Structures are given as structure tokens and as C-alpha cells.
Amino acid sequence: MTFYENEIKIRLSVTYQNFRTLIKIELVPMDMWNPYKSAVSTVIPHAKIVIDKFHVVKLANEALEKIRKANRQNVSAKERRQLMRDRYVLLTRRKDLNDFDDQIKLQIWTDNFPLLGQAYELKEQFFEIYEAKSINEAYKLYQSWLSNVPKELLPYFADLIKAMNN
């Protein structure tokens, strides 16, 4: 543990210890930074840690962005500019693509770049985990999602997988 991480842990510990109602805390929402998790586990060991959805799905979108950028090398300058302009389509959930032109753009990019298409589908599947009705269903969806990640895409999704395993 670095000095900075230790300092954060100490500050969080002092802050949480000042609460007279520690015993009443059941859930602690947070991002995925390990020193936060460590501090909460130390000070409020009975509390369940809930990772903020925003931070997790952001990693799914970042994986897709890495793949999009890797594909820039394989296209003409004109296509590269178009891929940059169309990136919002790739980052938008399929169910939210209401404009027919956007649906066509998505289809063209995912058909022409199969890995990008696979990554988009993985992003969509990952978001579905957060729509699960129970923890058990979410766990099963995650295990299914993880088993569907092809080896060639694992490096792009490594940060997301690591965060989920924390």
C-alpha cells in the first residue's frame, strides 16, 4: 500500500469512526478504488459494499472506445473521420437508438468491423447485468457475459473484468 493510499485509509477510518451509528450502516456505495473498500471493510465490516453502477459501465464503454480506436489504423482517412463522428452511436445503448440513420450507422460499423461488433454486443450484454431482478440473476448474467468474451477482446475488457473481481 502506498503512502497516499494509507493516508486515505486513515482519513476514511477516522471519519467513519466518528459516526455513532456505525452499527446501523448496512450498505456503502462507492467507486472501485481498493483503499475505499479496504477502509470500509476495516471500519464497518458488517456493511455490504455496493459499487456505483456509473463507474462500472463507464469501463465497458472505455473498452469499446479502445477497440474503436484500434480499428482506426485499418481504415482510410475519410472512414477514420466518419468513425470519430459516429462514435456516439457505438456508445449509445441499442434500445436508445431511436433515429433510423443511427441504427444504420451502427449496423454498418459493426458489420464492417466484426471485433467492434462483438465488443458492442458485449457492452450491451454487460449493461443488462444491471437490469437483473436479483443478485443471483446478476451473478449468472455476469458469468455468462465473462464466458462470452473472446480471447482477442480480453485485453480491452481487462480493466472491467478486474474491477468486477475486486
Q: In a nutshell, what does this entry contain?
A:
The protein is mostly helical.
Structure description:
With 166 residues, the protein is mainly alpha-helical. It has helices at residues 3-17, 34-43, 53-71, 77-85, 87-91, 100-112, 114-129, 135-148, 154-165, and strands at 27-30, 48-51. A two-stranded parallel ribbon has the order 1-2. Strand 1 (27-30), helix 2 (34-43) and strand 2 (48-51) form a beta-alpha-beta unit. Helix 7 runs antiparallel to helix 8 (135-148). The longest helix is centred in the middle third of the chain and has 19 residues, at 53-71. It is elongated, with a radius of gyration of 20 Å. The model has no long low-confidence stretch (mean pLDDT 86).
Secondary structure layout:
Elements: H1 3-17, E1 27-30, H2 34-43, E2 48-51, H3 53-71, H4 77-85, H5 87-91, H6 100-112, H7 114-129, H8 135-148, H9 154-165
Parallel strand pairs: 1-2
Helix pairs in contact: 1-2, 3-7, 3-9, 6-7, 7-8
Keywords:
166 residues; mainly alpha; 9 helices
Rg, Cα atoms, Å:
20 Å
SS elements, strand count: 2
Low-pLDDT windows of residues: none
Overall spatial form: elongated
What value does the average pLDDT take? 86
Structural class: mainly alpha
Major sheet attributes: 2 strands, parallel
Share of residues in helices: 55-70%
What is the rounded distance between the termini?
A: 16 Å
SSE arrangement, N to C: HEHEHHHHHHH
The largest sheet has its strands arranged as 1-2
Query: Count of DSSP helices?
Result: 9
Percent in strands = under 5%
